[in-house]
Design a protein that fits this description.
This protein is an alpha+beta fold. The chain is 35% helix and 25% strand. The strands form 4 sheets. Strands 1-2-5-14-9-12 form a 6-stranded antiparallel sheet, with no helix packed on it. The N terminus is likely disordered.
Length: 397
């Protein structure tokens, strides 16, 4: 016959083993919860973590003591304290359960709060994304093409003019002029060798499947075009102009002889790019020298051995090139495009690298929203000399 105390000891021993197994699972689970909880809010977890860990430690120590007593066969100890032991154990488990429930409730609240905060942040980011996705649209015009440089590729976008009006322009995000890449607003893109018509007062010249535009008559300067900047505020100008030589243009020879010539006059044989009026403000000059073999006043200033002075308002803001090797007044040179930075002989080799053609870059002294004007100038009739234009590409920033 088994005594009551033995039954109690066996039951208690089994209960102790079961409780220890459960506590191991609870402890592992609690550690995971605490880790998640700490990842959500470490500061708010400290007090709860300390309380839970202390209660677990006390309970485990107490169960270890009970197990030690049971395994040693201490029936008297159990007989004396068995009831109180079980009561104390139950009380401790209830307390632990309460703490676990409280901790779980806190975790749930924090998770809900974190989720809500995350959803708000996500919504805000989504809204920002939507706005960024619409930035450059008519509803959300950008400040300029350069303000879109880091977030959008090349394309048609709406930007604000200097008056605040929304205007649509092509923004080139890859074009490099000087040391500046991207953020350029295209002002004009003409290819007379393709489908673009010649400007007023200009006629087509066709040779060897090359189609260009040159002035039809007269001397002095004739407007090729005034190109609207649409009110954009800019301080940088970038561009490329490809031309061909006819006859004997003579670069800056006229302005060297007549020192009083100004930017508003016919100061070169070639093209003059300006902004503003009364007086015009110089951006870039494109003189064409008489031959590639000379370095006198009829030649390009960048030719080796050139020593003449030319108008100060030009500075170093010019490209100069030639096609002819000797003076032939009625010759057209369709196989040698000018201002492209290639095909220079020993005398004109410095012209191929001077200012890094074909793309020019000019930083202005201040911001402006002036339109751009391109003029074709020559001091002799079109029968003797001429500038045949193939491409005009102009950008501002």
């Amino acid at each position: 016959m088994v005594s009551t105390s033995t039954v109690v000891l066996i039951a208690l021993s089994a209960a102790s083993v079961s409780i220890l197994g459960a506590l191991v699972a609870v402890t592992v689970g609690l550690s995971v919860d605490i880790g998640l909880f700490k990842s959500n809010n470490d500061q708010q977890q400290k007090a709860m973590e300390s309380s839970l860990q202390l209660k677990l430690q006390e309970l485990l120590q107490f169960i270890s003591m009970v197990n030690a007593s049971v395994l040693s066969g201490g029936s008297s100890a159990v007989a004396v304290s068995g009831g109180s032991t079980i009561t104390q154990l139950d009380s401790s488990l209830m307390e632990l359960n309460r703490l676990l429930q409280e901790e779980q409730s806190r975790i749930d609240r924090l998770n809900a709060s974190t989720s809500e905060q995350f959803n708000i942040t996500e919504a805000q980011l989504q809204e920002i994304s939507i706005v960024l996705g619409s930035l450059g649209s008519r509803a959300f015009p950008a400040a300029s093409c350069s303000s879109l440089l880091s977030v959008l590729p090349s394309g048609m976008y709406w930007v604000r003019s200097s008056s605040g009006a929304a205007i649509q322009v092509y923004c080139d995000m890859t074009r490099t002029c000087g040391n500046v890449t991207g953020g350029w607003a295209r002002i004009i893109n003409l290819d007379f060798n393709s489908s673009d018509a010649c400007p007023t007062n200009f006629v087509n010249r066709t040779s060897s499947n090359l189609l260009t535009c040159e002035r039809g008559s007269g001397t002095g300067c004739t407007e090729v075009g005034t190109y609207s900047t649409m009110g954009l505020s800019y301080s940088e100008v970038c561009g490329r102009i490809i031309v061909y030589q006819y006859g004997t243009p003579e670069a800056f020879s006229r302005s060297i002889v007549i020192s009083s010539l100004t930017i508003d006059s016919q100061y070169l044989d070639g093209l003059s790019l300006t902004h503003g009026s009364s007086p015009r403000q110089h951006i870039w000059s494109f003189p064409v020298g008489v031959t590639i073999t000379r370095n006198d006043r009829f030649a390009c200033p960048c030719n080796v051995g050139y020593t003449r002075t030319f108008p100060a308002f030009i500075g170093n803001s010019f490209f100069c090139d030639s096609s002819a090797t000797s003076i032939i007044p009625t010759m057209f040179y369709p196989n040698n495009p000018l201002f492209d930075g290639v095909g220079c002989d020993p005398i004109t080799t410095t012209c191929c690298s001077f200012n890094s053609p074909p793309w020019f870059y000019r930083l202005l002294s201040q911001f402006t929203s002036d339109n751009l004007e391109l003029r074709s100038c020559q001091d002799e009739p079109v029968s003797a000399e001429g500038i045949a234009i193939q491409n005009i590409d102009l950008y501002v920033r």
